């Protein structure tokens, strides 16, 4: 059985007045891209600070590669590429100086991968760190996190400040790193990016993990769901009458919704032959739907 590379067991860090994280358990297998979704103040950064060994849990354990995230934090640093939710650069002048300084700290002597990342993010590293825009700072932090080629990446809201095109570049990079076998933990409050790249996503609300979702099942559902609007109410009634699918829901005079196993799509299309349709649309249960439902239950 594959052991978990990251394992939080009943972790609590209580800041009082209901703030913090409570009884958080998360298991992550090597090579997994794990999303951590939550609203503002839900406990994402607190969880990540426990993972990075910046905070000591009051209860529970955090283990990374079998080591204790708090006690072995110095050692573990070399296994983890990290982007903080909020960061401050050291007192250095330019992006280049910072990246060279950080590369030295990581023991990097071959700068090929760093250069590739700089090119990928179209980053001008010659700019003074203080004068960098929010997006440029974020890109610099991302280059620093990825350039060490560490086997684990822990990313706290990594797309903050990135424009939509750069967000795409970042998601492509995540896919590439996954293909290399990296384990990635990323927090976000953007459903779409989690849905695009993650294997599994945990939903945190008010410091508690309220649901864990198999994201691949959302991307590739076993059942497909279609909204169909016929030209006339008579056609809709005829269709529903003649083809007794188990899961037909009438949603209006001319409209209905049909849920079928994905492999039965051709059967549905054949049944629709001969009808004049005004609309035929595949509907999609999104991560957002799961999220809202999980939050509702959590309340
Ligand atoms: N050191 C601290 N002392 C007291 N309260 C804290 C501390 N750190 C975090 N908190 C509180 O714990 C809760 C969770 O904060 P956290 O930063 O983990 O949330 P988050 O999900 O990362 O939020 P955001 O999306 O806004 O970054 C918040 O109510 C926050 O105010």
TrEMBL record:
Signal sequence annotation: none
Coiled coil regions in record: none
Domain named ABC transporter: residues: 6-231
Alphabetical list of SUPFAM superfamilies matching this protein: P-loop containing nucleoside triphosphate hydrolases
InterPro entries the record matches: AAA+_ATPase (IPR003593), ABC_transporter-like_ATP-bd (IPR003439), ABC_Transporter_VariousFunc (IPR051782), P-loop_NTPase (IPR027417)
Keywords: ATP-binding, Nucleotide-binding, Transport
CDD domains cross-referenced by the UniProt entry: ABC_DR_subfamily_A (cd03230)
Superkingdom: Bacteria
GO MF annotation list: ATP binding; ATP hydrolysis activity
Keyword Nucleotide-binding: yes
Protein name: ATP-binding cassette domain-containing protein
Species the sequence originates in: Sporofaciens musculi
